[in-house]
Hints:
- It is a single chain.
- The protein is α+β, with helices and mostly antiparallel strands.
- The protein has a single domain (4-389), classed as CATH 1.10.630.10.
- The chain contains 14 helices and 13 strands.
- The chain has helices at residues 17-29, 46-54, 78-90, 94-113, 124-128, 131-140, 147-162, 167-193, 199-209, 215-245, 248-256, 261-271, 303-306, 340-357, and strands spanning 12-13, 32-35, 40-43, 59-60, 120-122, 278-282, 286-288, 291-293, 298-301, 362-363, 371-373, 381-383, 387-389.
- The protein is globular.
- The chain starts with 11 loop residues before the first strand and ends with a strand.
- The relative contact order is 0.20.
Amino acid sequence: MIASADSVFRRRSSSPADFGSRLAALGREHPVVFDEFMAAPLVLRHGDVSAALRDTATFSTRLYGVGPMSAAMIALDGAEHHRQRRIHNRFFSAVASARYARIVAPIAERTFGALAAKSEADLVEDAGARYPMEVFLTLLGVPNELGDQGLQWVRTIVNWLGSPMSEELAGPGEQAFAELGAYTRRLVERERENPGDNLLGEVVRAYLSEDAYSPETVTVAVVGLLLGGFETTIQMLSATTASLLLNPESLGRVRADAGLIDAAIDEAFRWANPSAGLYRLVRRDTRIAGTDLAAGSMVYLCVAAAHFDERTYPDAERFDLDRRGGHLGFGFGPHYCVGAPLARIEVRAALTALLAACPDVRLDPDSPPSFYYGARGFVQHGTDALPVLLRP
């Protein structure tokens, strides 16, 4: 057992890669080990993590179905999950995604282009934190009027869902969900009367086409999209930017060839690990790597450790734009993130705009970033700040 004080999940580092590297080193000795701080056994090897993510009959997401989120797609398995995923796929189709990209690009250009007037900035606070919220509300076709209140709702709910066993987080989480849900329901009911050419209209039409529309169901779906895409996008963007700034040779290649941005996003998701891992509920007695897990217990599938498993990623410590083999940052199997195309669109547009507006961007040597689990108060791995210099 790992005592809480010794947990890798409580350490900070100036390199985002240290988190996954340390966990993988632990996994080479103990493929499954109980972590007191995470209150669950950690599954640390790539083969075991990916197999468990595929096996939803044994390792269930039902634990995320707390309170009003019981009908959310993340909390469903089997036939109902398949039905919900079919509906969600409609509003993330190739045609819909191309339309979203045309909307996102000018927001990114305006947000990150504004940095060109500065000599230094914090890429998280000055641009990255509010960018996903503006994108999402614009895609929904509603005014960007939530401001800090919307950010606070999302943060409170994500913390609650990320640690569903925490009684301390349940009350504030339920209250925030009720308030955000009430706001979202008003938008849904208004859109039902005349679905527009926007993401909210796509969601409403998709549920109507499957004869699955109700204000409650669509409200949960829209809130779920917001929760799934907001902080993930912030940490994904800061992880990719930091990874490139910490690896100047790769940054130079991306500057010379924008076609490498997608490769940079994928490798940063592996190397910097904005998605640390996922809790699962064990539905039946099972065994992983010689460790018995009892039905009804919790287990943590450690994506960060899997991403540094040398058997899957040779020379895992190196940030490599030419690496093949994918990553588990968006999940794997039936619960692969349905919003991954939109997240990619947002990060791709932001990086393109940043490098165009600020070609001399580099880390501030006097204010190195600090990466840790729980950054910005969320249950993800990242940084609170990314100070950069923008002038030669």
